[in-house]
User: What shape does this take?
Amino acid sequence: MSGLRDGELDTAALMGAALRAGDVSSVELVERALRRAQSWQPIINAYSQLWADESLEEARRVDRLRPDERAPYAGVPIVVKDLFDVAGHETTGCCEAYRGTIAQTDAPVIERLRAQGPVVIEKTNQHELAAGGTNLVSACGRTGNPWDPDRMTGGSSGGSAAAVAAGIVPWSLGSDTGGSIRIPASMCGTFGLKPTYGALPTAGLMPLAPSMDCPGPLAATAGDLGILFGLIGGTAGDTRKRPIRIGVPDGYFADTAHDDVLAAVLVTGRALEAAGTTVESVDGHGLEAVRGVWMRVCCPEFTEAHPFLKDPTRRRLVARSVVEWLELGESQTPEARAQAIRDREGVARWFRDRLRAFDALLIPTTPYPAPQADQLEVELGTAGVVEVNRIGPGWMTSSVNLAGLPALTLPAGRSAGGLPVGVSLVGRDGEEGTLLRLAEMWETATGYHPAWPELPVSP
Assistant: This one.
């Protein structure tokens, strides 16, 4: 083996190929990932648990296998969000009330992943109990954005996105109930996929709202994103080479978006059009109340999913902002819940009506690039100033969860201040393959290659 130099083999596809060729060992890859994780941790606080000894032992086991015994990506390092059950380790959702809760078995998604051989090196920091889109609230402390640690990562899968964006690992697992994969992927500059609701099992996944929860992948490249989706059991749907029509909504998806975000949507549309798709405008009005609908659906389910937190002693260990979600859920009347369900059905119809004419919709992922951690307002430009606690990071994403549709965010560019800007493609039920194909078309058309911030300490 030639030894592993920094700056090479930074995608899962390249790592897998080098492992299969015998050019690198899993131990080398895992050791590098652990060094990077430890170097970045004081600055971005991306992980909640780091398993150095265990992951190195697993890497050594992979290295002992004969080539014909290895799965194609066996030995490639990966990280997973804290809310996934990993046998023998705590599942806390970064909430003090759940300290000491040890998983007895792997979640099915983790079991599928480990059967294919990637080495899990750590659990990642998240917004407490996934009840928020900033990753500023966590019993493990807030995460910092690798591109500017004073800024938020977005959440709730903020640690998973930060680990990929920092180059610690090429891919990670997160979950998405209101945008929790797509928001941090956008703010940190990675790819992220929220699958169709129900495409992947949610057993062994600490719940937020079971009718919307979705596990899914984040990755540095579109190719790695598709590979990981397949490893955890995802299917691509219709992958036939056929003409693709993309609709670009105005209205709700444009009226409260930062000028740099709208510019990224425009440039992405042009790139996809140059790649051979048809891109047209479509009416985006009619979703103005959708964030309230999402909260009225989410919070009662959240309360019911955590009976453990009815105990006042335990509830005192939960962050105040998360308790407010629990209290909102407890206060919801049966009539209000029934109305929220009807309103949700209207959101689903809104998307499906437009997706009859289009294969995908192109929308902003977040209303603005990553704000400062303590920032209360954001200047959008043409659209004026918005309050972060009113127009939050999940303003654009949560409607897609209500509809249950797949959505993929791609790292579409940079703001005037140099921060990542993501845009999303929303697809038809079960059509993750179309979204992945579009992401690869965009990658090719733009010549996109991932870039990573400089390591704070040389590994």
